[in-house]
Amino acid sequence: MSKTINASVAMMKVLEDWDVEQVYGIPGGSINSTMEALRLEQDKIDYIQVRHEEIGAFAATAHAKLTGKLGVCFGSAGPGATHLFNGLYDAQMDHVPVLAIIGQVGTSDMNWDSFQELNENPMFADVSVYNRTVMTAASLPHVIDEAIRRAYKENGVAVVTIPNDLGTKEIPDDFWSSGHSYVKPLLPEPDDEKLKEALKLISEANRPVIFAGIGVKGATPELVALAKHLKLPVVMSAISKGIIPDSFEGNMGSAYRVSTKPGNETLEQADLIMMIGADFPFARTKGMFNQDAKFIQIDIDSSKIGKRHNVDVPILSDSKKAMKQLVTLSDEVAHRRFYDACVANMKNWRAYLQQLADKTSDPLEVGAVFKQINRIATGNDVFAIDVGDVTMNSVRFLNMNEKQKFTTSALFATMGYGIGAAIAGKLTYPDRQVFNLAGDGAFAMVMQDLLTQVKEKLHIINVVFSNESFDFIKDEQEDEKQKYFGVDLQGADFAMIAQGMGALGITVHSYKELVESFDTATQVEGPVVIDVKIHNNRPLPAEKLQLDPATNSSEEIAAFKQRYEAESLQPFSVYLNEFEVE
């Protein structure tokens, strides 16, 4: 008699072969066969019980963003499945591999309008690169294996729906998995002739700039070396925060709204932009690039080249290889006036941020909170950043190096991302210090999963910036000359709520309490919630500057500087003139 194996256990063996370590979800009647397999294989795969499937999907997505490896989540039929969508769309839009296992009623109940029965395939068609319902028990491990291969190939979401009874059946133990034989694709080599064309354009430009995206991850030394060698200021996409250290003089920060002042000003003045591993959505829609500039684009995906703007020199290549070869093929530039002007502009901006961070007045300012975060950071931290003003402030105030990790919901920009991402960060990197930074609006959406942090005994420092407002949207209403409506929030004592869930909760109203709270946070073992009551001030709108006499009246400039405490902040034109940039 041939040997058999339970179909769901065979599925777990496939996940193990693909080096899956955690699976996030909530049990349900239509996914009980998967739960039983997780119980049987619990020594090899950790089942993480979340309190909302959305958080499980966020955690799976964050795991993929942080590691480049597959994240896995599941939901039972009906509501368990639909709760996953926010996290899955985040994975889709930020292009990371995630497997979503979806429960379904048993085959004998399908097509009878049974309890919680939905036609789930069409629901997941848009979000997925692979979307199948398992039709036979014997095919279950094969479909899971295929789904994972597709998720990796397309850097997207694979969805497998499993009728519950199929997972309970015994199948021949002759299945196989391809995880152990998976080979990463060879990335394209740069064409030296194209690189020489690019170098010629750079040599002819007066104001050349690098715009680097998430595609330069893992190539920090090459990017910094290229920027130094050719004296090119570097603007980063916001999601790429930390890939090059903030201490590097040529790092201008990010652009558009979740941005720095120098990031926007540098791009506005550029006459040549070299895009490296970036797919910047605001390039055309918000006019963030000088469309008269020359463009060089380096990407491993040919479909991205020319997507956002005209390209003068297209280079299909791995970014690391291309940047290294650009240095090899060129002579070092000893001096570039535009680069010097950018460095001076960034120094002025950093001095402004430091001025805000050094404030000790009450009510507390957001910069003072980030000063404490930077103070207790170890240099090897994981920062899970939620969505809203906290994203903008994190990009500006966090002082990061390339060893630290930064993750947020970038293109989908969904509130509630932080707490699930922090859970994944701590489970994936248990020896690292992990932060969840969230506004009170985002934290209130998902705070039930503090219970997950407590249950898993995860030392996560959750910092809640409480100002009782959806400030990011409030600022948009101001810019659109609307009256504020629907943006005020009912406040809460999040520290007391945390205490009720078994975490350490600390409420902070004053600077003295602020310093003490962060000292305490580093000394406890489990999760901490620091609920900081901050002043309801708008961050300086770097995309709507009113600083330059050439474009703004003296009255506008005075009002702008007064509102944002920016007396020392200079327009970029001051430095362009100082260094006589053509």
Automatic annotation (TrEMBL):
Residues 386-532 form the Thiamine pyrophosphate enzyme TPP-binding domain. Pfam families: TPP_enzyme_C, TPP_enzyme_M, TPP_enzyme_N. The keyword Oxidoreductase applies. The keyword Oxidoreductase applies. Residues 7-120 form the Thiamine pyrophosphate enzyme N-terminal TPP-binding domain. Keywords: Oxidoreductase, Pyruvate, Thiamine pyrophosphate. Its EC number is 1.2.3.3. SUPFAM superfamilies: DHS-like NAD/FAD-binding domain (SSF52467), Thiamin diphosphate-binding fold (THDP-binding) (SSF52518). GO terms for molecular function: pyruvate oxidase activity. Residues 195-326 form the Thiamine pyrophosphate enzyme central domain. NCBIfam families: pyruv_oxi_spxB (TIGR02720). Belongs to the TPP enzyme family. PANTHER family: PYRUVATE DEHYDROGENASE [UBIQUINONE]. This is Pyruvate oxidase. It comes from Pediococcus inopinatus.
